[in-house]
Amino acid sequence: MTDEELREMISRTLTCRIDKRENCGDKMEEFLKRCFYHSGQYDSEEHFAELDKKLKQKEEGKLSNRLFYLSIPPNIFVDVVRCASCRASSGNGWTRVIVEKPFGRDSESSGQLTRSLKQYLAEDQIFRIDHYLGKELVENLSVLRFSNLVFEPLWSRDYIRNVQFIFSEDFGTEGRGGYFDNYGIIRDIMQNHLLQILALFAMETPVSLDAEDIRNEKVKVLRSMRKLRLEDVVIGQYKGQSKGGKTYLGYTEDPTVPNDSLTPTFAAAALFIDNARWDGVPFLMKAGKALNTRRAEIRVQFRHVPGNVYKKNFGMDMDKATNELVLRVQPDEAIYLKINNKIPGLGMRLDRSDLNLLYKMRYPKEIPDAYERLLLDAIEGERRLFIRSDELDAAWSIFTPLLKELETKKITPELYPYGSRGPVGAHYLAAEYNVRWGDLAEDE
């Protein structure tokens, strides 16, 4: 590619959408002038030395800070880091590397990757990016909890009955099954995005908002968690379905997926944190592709009111009377609390209502994309939302035994139709802990 071709490609998706929109054209031009294309082999130190030479010309002796973003296949991470670190590091400023997931496939490969990266980089140069941690609602989770007196005292086993982390997509792999089939939904969504949100949700109050203080608390949560067992998990895989005159292909009918693949496209799991705050509270997770809706949310279901005098007004279903706090990460960011309320009138009829903060109504300004926030953080050296090595080890150690067992025993996933609510087994898993999935109750 020439520099011009690269600029043309970038300009197709470039916007000035956050904050100051004036002089947009000038800003874009100024930005594009600084974009250059340099071709070379990932594992060639010589080509990186040429890149270094080119960068030095552009830097013209100013303070040089260099951020390498590795959005490349993981098998070449180490080659690039070796060449960049030996031949294209900054001489007088900082050099940082953003690593895009996957960070290995299990404890062993993840540990190997970390050891290899650390041959060439210090821990504070490595930024492992998980874009879910940059999402507005996930960022707001700690603010909601630690700066509102009404929530923090309730944030424990005394008041919370269960917590649910739900991620669903309404599309399948659609021709991109090559990558996905090697990893599956547990590695792709649960072990990183959902587990990271869980750690932020469940951690103790950090000493300060300093990155290391927050990351220390997250590591403690992860290290207190039980290893997942086969009986704590349900896996599924979507099958083809004809709906409204349209045919949707099943996962194994995708030409990029092997016909006999047992890779799960859906998983539900019950996790437990064995510490004083959360002892006995089920943390339920589910993630799936080709489901009936697209959503990502955290649902906190509180305990029933002891000796509730309004019991008879709810009939037999006390779940209908459960207070529930929902943080909807996407789409349409919102925070709402389900409360019980009397319907106006002469009789005593109760109803569940939402106290609702819908972001687009309250904050009509555009919300920055998660990657925008995280890239800015990496440039500023803010590590709070990036994953530390020991945190990654602790996260993998929860899931690795389960993944090994699923693969060695060749456990067959339960099939569910494209566009459905997922496998029936997920309901049984929740029922074992006397829980109903909040999203399904809401859709009814």
TrEMBL record:
Entry's Gene Ontology BP terms: glucose metabolic process; pentose-phosphate shunt, oxidative branch
Keywords: Carbohydrate metabolism, Glucose metabolism, NADP, Oxidoreductase
A Pfam short name: G6PD_N
EC code: 1.1.1.49
UniProt xrefs under InterPro entries: G6P_DH, G6P_DH_AS, G6P_DH_C, G6P_DH_NAD-bd, NAD(P)-bd_dom_sf
SUPFAM superfamilies: Glyceraldehyde-3-phosphate dehydrogenase-like, C-terminal domain, NAD(P)-binding Rossmann-fold domains
UniProt keyword annotation of Magnesium present: no
Glucose-6-phosphate dehydrogenase C-terminal domain location: 143-437
GO molecular function: glucose-6-phosphate dehydrogenase activity; NADP binding
Catalytic activity: D-glucose 6-phosphate + NADP(+) = 6-phospho-D-glucono-1,5-lactone + NADPH + H(+)
Record-annotated Glucose-6-phosphate dehydrogenase NAD-binding domain positions: 1-140
GO CC, any one term: chloroplast stroma
Transmembrane segments: none
Pathway given in the UniProt record: Carbohydrate degradation; pentose phosphate pathway; D-ribulose 5-phosphate from D-glucose 6-phosphate (oxidative stage): step 1/3
Stated role: Catalyzes the rate-limiting step of the oxidative pentose-phosphate pathway, which represents a route for the dissimilation of carbohydrates besides glycolysis. The main function of this enzyme is to provide reducing power (NADPH) and pentose phosphates for fatty acid and nucleic acid synthesis which are involved in membrane synthesis and cell division.
Family of this protein: Belongs to the glucose-6-phosphate dehydrogenase family.
HAMAP family from the UniProt entry: G6PD (MF_00966)
Name used for this protein in its record: Glucose-6-phosphate 1-dehydrogenase
